[in-house]
Design goal:
about 300 residues, D-Maltodextrin-Binding Protein, domain 2, Alpha-Beta Plaits, 3 domains, six-stranded mixed beta sheet, about 30% helix, about 30% strand, binds prephenic acid, aromatic amino acid biosynthesis, Preph_deHydtase_CS, ACT_dom
Length: about 300
């Protein structure tokens, strides 16, 4: 019997990133093939090119907010859908080559998101020392190991992986920050509804009065709670925005399906980004009786009877 090839997972590499830790929390060692990518766009491109089956990428952080490369990478290009979400508490160390002292550090390198989450602590430890961007926290650790920079902000595991030692532990300005990662794949069969799901989408609204209110109303009137919304530039011109949002429920739920169909009518463009099990440890709000599948089915049957002349 032909064997199914192992799933190829692209992730923001190199080894030792938070993205890899997030992937390890959902894919057992030895299961699938892990393919480190140089950047979020590269991980998404690998999936679009068929070189990877799925990509694990950071979407947002509880302190720093959205990860623009992922937000924009999912809005543009060939469609990809989220098949699961993964939450990871992130903790950072200031890592150096053995023997380096604080006074020797002339630059600190890390992923911009990690630098932003540690800016205050770093300013206290290393006043006036420039912060330099890297493609990932582990990429920064590797660059320090290779002698390109003096210090990196990275995960303790990345420091270890690249032979670095911590000059300071827990350098986050807000301890306990959580990053939400998503596993994305080419469109295909959707994860089955679990009763506690989220749906993600991007909608471009027209440049007219009340356009955002119209979008929001489609959710509100159907008893659907939003869990995230943010605006992103469409890059067309100032004044035209897309809204990236997550709502409770699965597109298979009547209320969510109908809301999406309504957005298709009222928005300039809607991109469905998937329905997947909610995994933030929270439970969707109770659905009002009037927004339950049974109520939609009943209303549909009533309308069918009217149309058939059975008044
Ligand atoms: O560089 C990494 O290790 C990543 O996984 C990326 C990333 C991010 O993009 O936010 C993930 C978690 C941390 O918040 C910092 C960096």
């Amino acid at each position: 019997m032909p064997q199914t090839p192992p799933t190829r997972f692209a992730y923001l590499g190199p080894e030792g990133t938070f993205a890899e830790a997030a992937l390890s929390s959902v894919v057992a060692p030895g299961e699938g093939v892990r393919q480190p990518a140089a950047s979020v766009p590269a991980a998404l491109a690998a999936v679009r090119a068929g070189e990877s089956d799925a990509a694990l990428v950071p979407l947002e952080n509880s302190v720093e907010g959205p990860v623009p490369a992922t937000m924009d990478g999912l809005s543009d290009g060939a469609p990809l859908v989220i098949t699961r979400e993964v939450f990871l508490t992130v903790a950072f160390v200031l890592a150096v080559r053995p023997g380096t002292r604080l006074a020797d550090v002339r630059g600190v390198v890390s992923h911009p998101h990690a630098l932003a989450q540690t800016a205050r602590t770093l300013a206290g430890l290393l006043p006036g020392v420039p912060a330099l961007p890297a493609s990932s926290t582990a990429g920064a650790a590797r660059a320090v190991a290779e002698g390109e920079h003096d210090a990196a902000v990275c995960a303790p595991i990345a420091a270890e992986r690249y032979g670095l030692v911590p000059l300071a532990d827990d350098v986050a300005d807000h301890p306990g920050a959580v990053t939400r990662f998503v596993l994305v794949a080419p469109p295909g069969a959707l994860p089955a509804p679990t009763g506690n799901d989220k749906t993600s989408l991007v909608a471009v609204v027209g440049d007219r009065t009340g356009a955002l209110l119209d979008l929001l109303a489609e959710f509100a009137v159907r008893g659907i709670s939003l869990t995230r919304i943010e605006s992103r530039p469409t890059r067309e011109r100032l004044g035209v925005y897309s809204f990236s949002l997550d709502c409770e429920g699965h597109v298979a739920d009547a209320r969510v399906g109908e809301a999406l169909a309504a957005l298709h009518r009222v928005c300039d463009d809607v991109r469905f980004l998937g329905s997947y099990p909610r995994d933030d440890g929270r439970t969707n709000r109770p659905v009002p009786d009037v927004a339950a599948d049974a109520a939609f089915a009943d209303a549909g049957a009533w309308l069918d009877r009217l149309r058939a002349g059975q008044v």
